[in-house]
User: Fold 8-amino-7-oxononanoate synthase from Marinobacter orientalis.
Amino acid sequence: MRDFAAELENRKQAGLYRTRRLISGPQQPELVSDGVPLLSFCSNDYLGLASHPDIIRAATDAMPGTGLGGASSHLICGHHDAHHQLEARLAAFTGRSSALFFSTGYMANMGVISALAGRGDTIFSDRLNHASIIDGCILSRATVRRYPHADMSALAGMLASTGGHKLVVTDGVFSMDGDIAPLKELAVLCREHDALLVVDDAHGVGVVGPHGRGSVAELGLSEEDVPVLIGTLGKAIGTSGAFVAGPKLLTDYLVQKARTYIYTTAMPPAIALATCASLDLIEREDSRRSHLQSLVRDFRRGASALGYELMPSRTPIQPIMVGDNWSALALSQALEQQGLLVTAIRPPSVPDGEARLRVTFSAGHSTADLEKLLAALAECRTLVAGPDTEAV
Ligand SMILES: *Cc1c(COP(=O)(O)O)cnc(C)c1O
Assistant:
């Protein structure tokens, strides 16, 4: 039998052991962690909607009429009119012909990629794509070719030298770096090489683009340009679940073929109605996004002035590059001693030697919160080598 205990010990020695932090109370910038209050800069609740009263009320108001449990898969008797209503709402929000509601983004990626590509086909996947995309590629049994991050000439060469059915898949906003994929160039390349383009905009939906319609909408890319658009609902949207949007033919096909859609219990209908309420709010109020943008701008200015190395990101994902695992942990722990929660992200979530603090912003943060973060970062500056100093 494998020596599981030794494997865990090796992880500890390498600074890679992970633990779960116990949170009580609602998700918001002011968290209570193991009884201690902390100001959090690591959630994906970018618009501060995870505990918004209107959205909570939409769920609780719905439940006497819908009940709580999903009870069955969509193809047996679980497809509730609340789910159907949300799908129409998501299609309108993304400007697509139709949408399909999945239980999680992880399942959406696994189901969509494995349904749309199979043995003998080739999938081209950005090297920094999310784990759920990587796993979807493996599940598909297609040949997988990873291209260097956002490198369009490398991808063009790979597409030109490959025959058969081709699928290109990318994050819209990259989850650990915060940069946005070259979507326009990807759409052109895919058209040239007759490849199907799949964009996972988990971190773009709600955050970028007109009225938060995402990174694909920001560039005005149509359903022909990006035929398969995936988004998640547990991040900026503040609820739970995910969707795939595109031509009616696509969603019809996925209902037949996507196993993670077919063989799982439908989400509680009340979650679908709460998500509709969240989308209404997001479309109505641009103020959250503009506040978020000013936090990001001021953070970048402040943290750069302190000599921290940032990534080329204009989204609420603002990593501070550190390098080695132990320094990332030390910086995270020093910030926690000052009452701030910013988690260290280590391999395999990021490449080896690229450990970082993944700072994320929420519209729920005040400018005073940002000042607290910058003051604490000033205190901790000596813990990491900056771009100007030799790494130790
Ligand atoms: C978070 C994330 C997912 C998974 O979504 P869940 O709904 O949390 O399962 C998928 N893709 C990307 C890029 C993500 O960041």
Summary: The radius of gyration is 21 Å. The chain has two domains: 20-51+286-383, 53-284. Residues 104-106, 109, 130, 132, 171, 175, 200, 202-203, 232, 234, 242 surround pyridoxal-5'-phosphate (CB under 6 Å).
